[in-house]
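User: Is it possible to get a 3D structure for a protein together with its bound compound? The compound here is manganese (II) ion. I've pasted both below.
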Amino acid sequence: MKSVLRGLAKRKSLAQNNNDSSSWGTTTLLGRTLLRRGRRRGLDATESLSPKDEGRSFTTLAASMAHNNNNATTKVGGYRPPPAKYCQTQQHVRWHHPDPRDLKHATKGWKAALAEKAIPESAHAASIERELKLGLRGSSSINDKTIPTFSRGELPHFAGINTFMKAPYCEDISEVGKYDAAVVGVPFDGGTTYRPGTRFGPQGIRRISALYTPYNYETGVDLREQMSLCDAGDIFTIPANIEKSFDQISNGVGYIASTGAMPIILGGDHSIGFPTVRGIAAQTTKNIGIIHVDRHADIQEYDLDERMHTTPYFHATNIPNVKPENLVQIGIGGWQVPRAAVKEIRNKRTNVFTMSDVEDLGIEKVVEMALEKAWDGCDAVYLSYDIDSIEAGFVPGTGWPEPGGFLPREALKLVGLVAAEGLCGMEIVEVSPPYDVSDITSLMGLRICVDVMGAMVSHGKMGKHRDIIDKEFVPF
Ligand SMILES: [Mn+2]
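Assistant: Yes, that's possible. Here is the predicted structure of the complex:
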């Protein structure tokens, strides 16, 4: 027994000694930590700190490294071998990490590059053929024979008629049902209670959408190949009349939904959140849940004596097949939530997550809980995304900016996880180009829409929204 204990003690002391003279070639936890610290200080792997260097000033360290380098006997290209006491061999240090192209350890970057090979290109080929037919073959000095004389498709990105991502304009609305999804603008800001300008939201988002290709490298989705999309243009709203505009919006969005195309709505202020859902809900006997991402609760009954952009979820949850228990509100908080709205949250017992909930629980957990509530007893879920849910510094072009919201990557993760379960429609609201800088808010709004489509496509959910349409379209 004694000898076993002595053996353990000896091993422990050996391990300590080993750490004290830690070589960068070994993969001890301490070694890896110090390697990272060394990198953070702007040193390369061969110049990283030894354990005993920790806590010493940078000047002392630099002097010590210079001394070590002077003592080095060999130099290979620009590579300076580390002092022998810090590693076993040069090769050991240089090949510390596995090859990122070795499939066993491959980066997502390399895997995505390989996966691209499997995506079809037939829709792209068909679109080039169409462009040449409609746009006249290019002049003889043009070597690339896919280039027409008149721009009729995606390229060049700065040219052409600026529909949403250069999707075909569905001018004859009776043809909208041919598409899996239809982008529709709702240029209405009559429900705004402070800074107006969201009537230009659809224009702003469409303009910046010219930047995008239909392919996403990281997720390996090519929207052009894997779904069909059109731009249905804008709904004719009535600037000075909220209620008439609401009827027009329910009529237009309801019609698109009734044909089987999924409405992707570009607002507009958040007052449209009521008539959009009303339009879709009228096309089905099934229940619809709502995931509402916002810094504001938007659930009081009236504001300034009207149904403004602070009120959609009071009225939406009065629709018989849209129940308050299936309303999930994420990101709510800050200094812009009126107490009148909070009383309605209590009355209607909606599901509310503040930004601190998001911080405490994490995006995945919040989405998991949100989906459970939104889908409970429902056959479809609608996403209402208010751009002001994102940290105000990233989205200056909005009516009621509020610091402390989502970071862009968090927002994209959230919508991706929500959309992966399927949606019957979505809207992006409160993008106000007159207050925007460099189109950054419009770009963020665009990205939310495109990420929703991408997640639906990659999870096989695009097209599933058609299953809930079981009523005849009746105009509002
Ligand atoms: Mn808001």
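The beta strands are 181-186, 215-216, 221-222, 229-234, 262-267, 288-293, 327-332, 351-354, 380-386, 425-429. The CA atoms of residues 128 and 146 lie 6 Å apart.
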